[in-house]
Amino acid sequence: MRSRLSFILRYFVLLVVIFILQKPLFMLFAGEGQVFSASDCLSVMYHGLAMDLSTAAYVSVIPWIVALVSLFIKLNPRKVLRPYHIIAALVLSLIFISDISLYPFWQFKLDASVFLYLDSPGEATASVSTGYLIIRILAVAAYAVVIYALLNRTTPKSFGVQEERRRKITAPLIAVILAGGLIFLAMRGGVKESVMNVGRAYFCDRQFLNHSAVNPAFSLFSSIGKSKDFSSQYRFTSKEKTEVYFGSFYNQGRDTSLSIRLLNTIKPNVLIIEMESFGSTYTDPQIQGYSRETVAPNWWRIAGEGVLFNNLWCNSYRTDRGTVSIFSGYPAFPKTSLMKQPKVVEKLPRLAEAFLNEGYSTHFLYGGDINFTNTKGYLITNGFRNLVADTDFTHKEQKSNKWGVDDAITFRFLAQQLQNLESPWFYGFLTLSSHEPFDVPEKLLDDKVLNSAAYTDRCLGMLIDSLKNSLVWDNLLVVILPDHNMLYRQSYSPEYFKNRMIWTGGAISATGTEINTIMNQSDVAATLLAQLGMSIEDFPLSRNILSPSYTAPSAFCCYNNGFVLADSLVAFTYDLDKMQDSGPEEKETLGKALLQTLYDGLGALTH
Predict the structure, then answer these.
(1) For residue 359, which phi and psi values (nearest 5 degrees)?
(2) What average pLDDT score do residues 407-435 get?
(3) Main-chain phi, psi angles of 507, to 5 degrees
């Protein structure tokens, strides 16, 4: 006889141990040609532990319910849970063996895309022998028997004498409820804003080790609903017609020739500052009489000293979308986030990796929870080798803002760190204070929203001034742009997506220049690489807007239920729910063609 709390804990720990021991087995059997050490194996187990805890918590929910119900109804837990144990053992065994078996072919963790092949099992198994399949089936059966036996053995036949009086139930009830609370916390991955996601297990530049750390059951079930047949969505016309339109839009600016050279060196240190919500709402406010010099005086001062891109159109309306557009040179989509899909992330272009290949060290700083929306997994895959996030700061600093470490602290940290980096380096920095709830430690303006922007602007000005007075400045290129605009007393109109970007630093030769060419955030990658004399071949949907071949400037932006298309003549919004637009018919046709072809490409990325 055992107590209910003891049962729940033993059950949970058993599952965690099973998942931990799966990792070296995965590395051994799925790592064909991979060389790894005992230290690698320990790192995999350590970094995958949080996900194992989460998965074990999900599996433990039904036993927890049985333990709770047993306080009020006399039952035999082992007998009641036997069918559940059979199902759980078979599912966990099938997932693990399938993951080991498919990884050498797929090179990604098991996810919901496996279900796409169930309707044609003959084709799915055509490339393997009958003996191969028989061995896997026997392995599934044997492993399921082991899991079942362990789960069954851990489950008692009875929890002891059934309490007859309510006062005797109180203590066990409280214990079981507290255990349920801990299970819930483990399921979501802790108490932070972000919930458990696959990217949290990523920890190094070797994808095989990152994949080894991912729990296959979590990977599979978390991808259900996310893995869709994207190539069947947004069908408007024939593929032949859409490809013609798509080519006219994205095939320009596909070379590294320059109509204007902005830099005085080809290998500067590069700092990209991705400013939270710092779009035209902040840099050109039309709110309550505030002027741009009042809200963002430092931003405009810096713009006047460098190169101002007046026609940068953000690809989307959320940070996870904007980050992918900037650092992968890839467009955004109306109803899906590429960053949240690990398999897609691994196939996206990688700006940080392009710099790695040129001998740059790569760094990224974000004062918030870097696990949010799979950001950590995306950044590591993109090529960032040195990540600094909220947990690298003191507990007090981590609580200085609702989202994490306040901008004043991270800007100051950045200014100090850049002094000590060995050139050349490529650095990404995402700010956070100018985001709802807009709580900042200083009051510069009466309007709370604009006050947060003024505060971040002040931090930006102090950073740039600090860098100017250091040895870093002479060989530095700073790119300052928003992740998206701040939706504040506006609607999803073309004006919402139209924003600005600054290039500054001692590496700039064309100071005081304004560039009015229409461009997307996704064009920053190719435009930057071209200025540095680096290849843009790996960024097929990013355009070098300073190339003479960029002859029809345009921008394509997506939001939750529509798209915005802009060129030098017109900018309009098309609502995909209402199927209504505010522009010429030919522009509607172009926008639909772009959207359909992008989803065709996304469908290819998920297979």
Answers:
(1) 90, 10
(2) 97
(3) -80, -10
pLDDT at 225 over 90: no
Helix/strand/coil for 56 = helix
Could you tell me which residue, 112 or 460, shows the higher pLDDT? 460
Examine the pLDDT at 116 and tell me if it is beyond 60: no
SS3 213: helix
* pLDDT value at residue 607: 66
Report d(CA 149, CA 14) in Å as an integer. Answer: 12
Q: How far, in Å, CA of 188 to CA of 176, rounded?
A: 19
Binned at pLDDT 50, 70 and 90, residue 323 comes out as very high
Residue with tokens 């362990």: 150
Query: In angstroms, rounded to a whole number, what is the distance separating the alpha carbons of residues 593 and 240?
Result: 10
- The full DSSP string for 251-295 is STT-S---SS--BS-SS-EEEEEEETT-SHHHHS--STT--HHHH
Name the pLDDT band for 233 (thresholds 50, 70, 90).
confident
Q: How confident is the model at residue 163 (pLDDT cuts 50, 70, 90)?
A: very low
Helical segments of 480-569, H only: 494-497, 524-531
Three-state SS for 480?
strand
State residue 250's pLDDT score.
95
Residues with Cβ < 8 Å from 277, sequence gap 6 or more? 434, 435, 453, 482, 483, 484, 485, 486
The number of angstroms, rounded, from the C-alpha of 409 to the middle of its chain's C-alpha atoms is 24
How many other CB atoms are there within 10 angstroms of residue 146's CB atom? Answer: 12
What are the structural domains, with CATH classification, of the chain?
4-223 (no CATH), 260-543 (3.40.720.10)
More confident residue, 350 or 35: 350
**Residue 327: pLDDT over 70:** yes
Ramachandran angles phi, psi of 537, nearest 5°: -60, -35
Q: What is the CA radius of gyration of the chain?
A: 27
Task: Report the distance separating Cα 333 and Cα 330, nearest Å.
Answer: 10
**What angle separates helix 61-69 from helix 4-30, to the nearest 10 degrees?**
170
Edge-to-edge order in the sheet of strand 554-559: 554-559, 562-567, 571-575, 580-581
Q: What's 415-470 look like in SS3?
A: HHHHCCCCCCEEEEEECCCCCCCCCCCCCCCCCHHHHHHHHHHHHHHHHHHHHHCC
C-alpha span between 461 and 305 (Å, rounded): 12
pLDDT of 439 over the 90 cut: yes
Omega before 331 within 30 of 0, i.e. cis: no
**What is the sign, positive or negative, of the torsion defined by CA atoms of 34, 35, 41, 46?**
negative
Do residues 512 and 304 make contact, with C-beta atoms less than 8 angstroms apart?
Answer: yes
Looking at residues 335-360, what average pLDDT do you find?
94
* Per-range mean pLDDT, top range of 193-197, 241-245, 397-401: 397-401
